[in-house]
Amino acid sequence: MAYKIAIIVGSLRKGSINRKVARSICGLRADNLDCSMIEIGDLPLYNQDLDATPPAQWQHFREQVGAADGVLFVSPEYNRSIPGVLKNAIDVGSRPYGQSVFDKKPAAIVTASPGSIGGFGANHQIRQACVFLNMPVMQQPEAYLGHVSDDSFDESGCLKEGPLKELVTTLAHAFHDWVEMIHRSRQLLAEDSAHVAQQKQREQAHA
Ligand SMILES: Cc1cc2nc3c(=O)[nH]c(=O)nc-3n(C[C@H](O)[C@H](O)[C@H](O)COP(=O)(O)O)c2cc1C
User: 93: how many CB neighbours lie within 10 A of its CB?
Assistant: First the structure.
């Protein structure tokens, strides 16, 4: 089954290596992951005063993420932290209070950088936000992609053959399995609860 995946890229740069990594992930599992890139560059800065009359861009973003079965964050690290544009998108999607579009959605986090640490700091700060947002985040494989440059991609923008592509391929497969596991377990639990409720009703009817 193909799951709808909302991909949120934390870079607005045209030649973004993170966007290319995101595109490569989509291409690697096109059979099972129905990916959409959700644009975040036009989102007005989050302001709680606007919760009652939200800008159209906020609503569009919330609808797009809300319709997804899972969320994939692919982001650079800025100053060892989350790029502001991505943090703004996370804040926009998380509100109004009690109506977060991220709630319960399975997620994975990928950070890519030309540096050797691979965006470790940003990766874990995104993870920290996901914990509060009640998103089950895939644990492994961790994806701190270091030493990524334009040279890591071919002319069509896809990852060249090599260890980086192998890791990203493993991650794409693992993410599909993660999304499937979360959705299937919820379905089984719901069926089980319905079954228990029916059983109770039958017992009460016979009592
Ligand atoms: C404001 C700013 C802060 C940055 N801080 C970091 C950093 O903390 N760690 C890091 O590995 N790279 C850092 N970089 C370099 C980015 O990793 C690099 O520019 C990368 O290509 C950005 O990702 P993108 O190609 O997807 O836009 C920073 C770049 C900018 C513009």
Answer: 27
